[in-house]
Amino acid sequence: MMNKSNVLGLVLFFMMTLCVQGQSVVGKWKTIDDETGKAKSIVEIYERSGKIYGKIIDILDAEKKKNLCVNCPGDEKNKPVLGLVIIKGLTKDGNEYNAGKILDPTSGKLYKCFLALEGNDKLKVRGYVGVALFGRTQTWNRVK
Predict the structure, then answer these.
(1) Is residue 129 classed exposed, middle or buried when 0-12, 13-18 and 19+ CB atoms within 10 A define those classes?
(2) Is residue 1 in some structural domain?
(3) How far apart are CA 89 and CA 50, in angstroms?
(4) Where would I find the DUF2147 domain in this sequence (predicted)?
(5) In terms of Cα–Cα distance, which of 81, 76, 78, 85 is closest to 65?
């Protein structure tokens, strides 16, 4: 038979588990262009083999839905932007995810990347060359 402290302990354990899961970058995110402030796409961030990846699952501008990644390097050259994996191989490091790359499908350039949650529904996405000081940051919004 369970006593009150065991029940309370279980309730707290499940609440903490939910909080930790809620603080994950995994999920769907609306990308916001840092120059125009306009929403551009939906990226689904997922984990595979302990690494974080992000794939474009929707393009919000109907005229750009069929765009190809003409400037992309290697295997991604001339592939549809829709369905492209743009975040590659990030690992969790404290409150950040880093040590991976992000692809800008417009320029075709690969940048070093780090992600950091701001609260539960905002994601700072930074792409940079060399040191993180030299780069651009976008804030993406979680899709509910």
Answers:
(1) exposed
(2) no
(3) 9
(4) 27-142
(5) 81
| CATH value at residue 85 | 2.40.128.520
Q: How far is CA 102 from CA 8, 110, 125, in A?
A: 43, 6, 9
Find the domain containing 88 and state its range: 25-142
Q: Residues 79-101: pLDDT tens digits?
A: 999 999 999 999 999 999 999 99
Cα first-last separation, the chain = 40
120, part of any domain:
yes
- Tell me: pLDDT of 143 over 90: yes
Does some domain include residue 5?
A: no
CB half-sphere exposure, 29, CA atoms < 13 A: 30
The residue among 106, 39, 27 whose CA lies nearest residue 70 is 106
Q: Is residue 31 part of a domain?
A: yes
What domain count does the chain have?
1
DSSP lists the bridge partners of residue 140 as 123
What does pTM read for this prediction?
0.82
